[in-house]
Specification:
heterodimer; A: 479 residues; alpha/beta; Rossmann fold; 6-stranded parallel β-sheet; 4-stranded mixed β-sheet; 23 helices; 52% helix; B: 225 residues; 2 domains; 7 helices; 32% helix; elongated; 4Fe4S_Fe_S_CS (chain A)
């Protein structure tokens, strides 16, 4: 997809005044947060499991080369094929080669963020192969020619009225007078339309939530069952996975599964957790004849050994964006690439460069909710700070910001001067703002006053208040 | 240089792998072989009868329906009754599972059994689970001729038989059973963990049952042999 992260600010301004988006995003704020809190509270071992999950991922990343080799050996042993892709282009070409080897015309797809990352759909279409997204949310946005706005709820930015319009436009074979006023009837229609596609497909492509080195297994976690139909009905199953998805053993998988669904949707377990190992066996009556796994690097190996390594623990639950006030306000598309929200603000600069994605780590209030809920305890705010530092040291942020910061730093490093300046400024502002209690316009602060009033100061600086408080305390103690 | 070598060598450089390589390889091998258990929720670590009850309660919580029968011989009646209550034709698809074939289907002469992988036209599928997980009300099913995976996903109604004695407290115990059954490091082509009927909340975060998989999941717990 076209990278639109450099115009984040423009995207955000548009998103903030989009009434449809405002309405749709209300569902994120209320639903996800509440459900996660209930699920976490219902499991006394939840916090311990977060620690365990983090430790497993750290241990795996510290030996990632070895675990990938062990994983590959097991896949091969079970009759599957592992393909290594350094770049998005390599991954696309491997998929195409496999599809062409079976003369594929139609490809069904389970939900995969890697597929978005490598822009697979456009590429397949350019080679006369028809990709069909089967996850309901992905299907809706494919009809609209859009990209996901959330990593687990791709169509979360849409209202039911918008979906109804898309279904009427796309499903022309169905009676125009049919009732599509309820989500349930829309779901039934999508189920019916997509059923025939599963059988028509020559190749089924899924992502992977995990790869298990002990057994050479790929794991998908879903609620709809579309990923399963995608992988058991066509002749060929292709798994798209990035290299950090590997975990050592089935026991380790069990630990992380316990925090994944709870963090994502507030379920104890998602409906379908499916472990796939190799192609169909000689006596199997169903399942794919070929099983391929594409291991994508695309910049991840260069995060190892840096301050961004912890980001590779991410299990893509979406909890960080569900709890992010900035995400709630601007929606996922504003971030301008595949991964939105706090995890995107850290991962996107790593994968496409901070020169293009520098706005993302700046779009944070550092409220810390993302880190508080991250099941893998990824220090997201700290890593956004690292990106801000890198951006500053490379001179990538605008001159006004750099000079502003430099001016502020000049005073901040000279406490007496700083106190003097503020003790002069505060009474002046206080005097001028006394009547209204706030300012509608303020020189040099239009970025603030354009959207809200600036409250006028009370009359004294913090330091003055503090000194007086301390003095009172002293007085109290001696008397 | 192939993609494989390029990626692995970049990882080795980033990890500063070198002198400790043999030690790392040993540690990785050891972890893969021992597969240590981590934190096991206390919720499922209870006596068998409580465990079965917890399994049933958790499965119902995720919108499955559950019934308990005394013996395998009661399964045909339970299946026939379910189909009748749902106004479905007296026809069910299943694999060649020995435990399912040995139940006295003759007790329900009107019930038609078709054996083999499921077709799109099948309305009801019957499978035998490898086990259950009380912790979350999850069923575990292994692929193969005995229980083809298509039976779990194509029919609108999925009926699953699970023996009470195969219901474990936690996921790890089921994984141990898989290791015993198939051999350490070996897996069936597909291992399905199923927790309730299929669903989607992709339209306005409204949860709806019956997405692409079964609309209904009916669990038959068999208490005795």
């Amino acid at each position: 997809m076209e990278i639109r992260s450099p115009v984040f600010k423009k995207n955000a301004r548009a998103a903030l005044v989009d009434p449809q988006l405002r309405k749709a995003m209300e569902h994120v704020k209320t639903g996800f947060i509440h459900k996660r809190a209930l699920a976490a509270a219902a499991l006394p071992e939840f916090e311990q499991l977060r620690d365990a999950g983090k430790a497993i991922k750290d241990l795996t990343l510290a030996n990632l080369d070895k675990y990938l080799e062990a994983y590959e050996a097991k896949v091969t042993e079970s009759g599957g094929h592992v393909h290594w892709a350094e770049t998005a282009e390599d991954a696309r070409n491997i998929v195409l080669r496999i599809c062409q080897s079976v003369e594929a015309k139609t490809v069904t797809k389970g939900k995969s963020m890697i597929s978005e990352e490598i822009e697979l759909n456009d590429f397949l279409e350019a080679h006369d192969i028809r990709p069909v997204e089967t996850d309901l949310g992905e299907y809706i946005i494919q009809l609209r020619g859009e990209h996901p706005s959330h990593i687990i709820a791709p169509a979360v930015h849409l209202t039911r009225e918008q979906v109804e319009k898309d279904f009427r436009r796309a499903h022309t074979g169905l009676p125009p007078g049919r009732d599509l006023s309820k989500p349930l009837t829309m779901l039934a229609e999508a189920r019916k339309v997509l059923r025939s596609q599963y059988f028509a497909a020559d190749v089924g492509i899924t992502g992977a939530n995990f790869l298990v080195a002990e057994t050479g297994t790929s794991v998908i976690v879903t609620n709809e069952g579309n990923g399963d139909l995608t992988q058991i009905l066509p002749r060929v199953h292709i798994v798209l996975a990035s290299i950090e998805k590997v975990v050592p053993t089935l026991s380790d998988l069990a630990q992380i599964l316990r925090v994944l669904a709870r963090s994502a949707t507030g379920q104890d377990m998602s409906v379908y957790t499916t472990l796939s190992t190799g192609p169909r066996r000689p006596d199997d009556p169903d399942g794919p004849e070929q099983y391929h796994v594409i291991l994508l690097d695309n910049g991840r190996s260069s995060m190892i050994g840096t301050e961004f390594q912890d980001m590779l623990r991410c299990i893509r639950c979406g909890a960080c964006m569900n709890h992010c006030p900035v995400y709630h306000a601007v929606g996922g598309h504003t971030y301008g690439w595949v991964y939105p929200g706090p995890m995107g603000a850290v991962l996107t600069p790593s994968l496409i460069g901070v020169d293009k994605a520098g706005h993302l780590p700046n779009a944070s209030t550092f409220c810390g909710r993302c880190e508080a809920v991250c099941p893998m305890r990824i220090p997201l705010p700290k890593m956004m700070r690292h990106w801000r530092e890198r951006e500053f040291s490379r001179g990538l942020n605008p001159a006004t910001q750099r000079y502003g910061l430099r001016a502020w730093a000049f005073f901040a490093k000279r406490p007496r001067l700083y106190r003097m300046a503020t003790s002069l400024a505060v009474p002046v502002l206080s005097l001028f703002g006394r009547r209204r209690g706030s300012f509608r316009v303020l020189p040099l602060a239009s970025g603030w006053t354009k959207y809200r009033d600036m409250p006028s100061p009370e009359g004294r600086t913090f330091m003055q208040e503090w000194k007086q408080r301390e003095a009172r305390k002293q007085g109290g103690q001696t008397s | 240089m192939s993609g494989r070598e390029a990626i692995l060598s970049r990882l080795r450089t980033a990890l500063r792998a070198g002198a400790d390589d043999a030690a790392r390889a040993r540690a990785v091998q050891q972890r893969l072989e021992s597969a240590p258990r981590g934190v096991i929720p206390a919720r499922g670590q209870i006596p068998e009868e409580d465990r079965v009850r917890l399994f049933c309660a958790m499965a119902e919580k995720v919108s499955a329906t559950v019934e308990r029968v005394a013996r395998p011989a009661d399964v045909p009646q339970a299946v026939a009754r379910y189909l009748r209550e749902k106004n479905l034709p007296a026809r069910v698809r299943m694999g060649s599972d020995e435990r399912l074939r040995q139940v006295p289907w003759g007790s329900e002469p009107s019930l038609e059994i078709t054996v083999g992988r499921a077709e799109d036209s099948d309305l009801a599928g019957l499978a035998h689970a490898l086990g259950g997980i009380a912790e979350t009300g999850t069923l575990v099913l292994a692929s193969g001729p005995a229980n083809p995976t298509t039976v779990n996903f194509l029919p609108e109604h999925h009926l699953v038989v699970v023996r009470a004695k195969d219901i474990a407290g936690d996921m790890e115990t089921v994984f141990d059973r898989v290791r015993e059954t198939y051999g350490k490091g070996v897996m069936p082509r597909t291992l399905n963990f199923i927790t309730g009927p299929s669903r989607s909340a992709d339209i306005e975060q409204t949860l709806l049952l019956g997405a692409h998989g079964p609309r209904a999941l009916h669990v038959i717990v068999v208490d005795g042999d």
